[in-house]
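User: Sequence in, structure out. Go.
Assistant: Echoing your sequence, followed by the structure tokens.
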Amino acid sequence: MANKSALFGQRVKRAAKIVALLKKAYPKPKSELIYRTPFQFVVAVILSAQCTDKAVNRVTQSGLFKKYKTPADFAHAKSAIFQKEISSLPFFRNKTKSIILAAKDVVKKFGGKVPRNENELQTLYGVGYKTAHVIMGELFNEWPGIPTDTHVKRFAKKFDLVDSNDLKKISKELEALVPKKDWKYVNNGLVLYGRYICPARKHDCRKHLLTKAWLPAADRWPKAK
């Protein structure tokens, strides 16, 4: 028990250092996904699974979001046509199903408005813990949890902050380490840091901002997925 307690204390201090650096580097959490309506953001997040934001933006800005704007637009989309429109993205068939059914849920259950409650969001087809919390943060500036994607998982393991490999469990472990007022900086900060500063491929990262805060991370290269 003493060792567990000591490890937790070390992780709390390490997480505090990392979050402080992320707050300075990325003070205003904002997604790089492009959208105009709330439900378009929901769609963009669903499309971004196992995919880069740039690839999603290419698809959505090539005409998709001019054609489909509201939940009703997406709910009435023809599956075969929608699949073709997003076919350059991975898992386009599953994503088509999720988007159309989630749109129908929003129309039927919530009067066409994206719910601003994490539990209600998770009742939408294809929307889990991570997606719901990304939506909450971006659309409503509310952060009731820390969403964990591949970037967050990679850095949580790289900096030895968590034991789990399950995304939702990692979220819960991080939420136990980081004060709630700072949850908003974790996902967005680590996503941008991983995207532009410290990619998943093995490289010399000893001079990177976060690695300098905990040097053992320079030799830790967990799998991104």
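User: And one key feature?
Assistant: The radius of gyration is 18 Å.
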